What does this fold into?
Amino acid sequence: MKIHAAAVACAPRCRDDLAKLPTFKHYIYFLFAPTLVYRDEYPRTKKIRWGFVLFHFLEVAAIIFYNSFLWERFILPYWSDYGKEPKVEAGTVVRGMFACVLPGVISFLCGFYCLLHAWHNAFAEMLTFGDRLFYEVTF
It folds into this structure.
């Protein structure tokens, strides 16, 4: 998706001989910045708050640990012996599915929070990406 956004933003420049094309440095910054809209320049902060970065990376580690706990404690016990028995009953499968619904939903929510909040905020701070309200529309 990011490659497409960069291509769409830079395509009109390819037709114009006088337009300056972005450098590889701009493209790499765009790949790691938490945005889907390509620009040559983004607002930048003055300094990196390393405590903020550390906090979000600790959040990532805690969420990974919590997800592994959820899977090992609540999801894998129901499915670890699946397929070892010669005959599988429908009731066993349905019971396992219903038992795993809540831990599965919590696992997905934690995963989305981990990636879309903690990981992106940590990288935004390390890249001094200053505009955290980039997509907000003001009237």
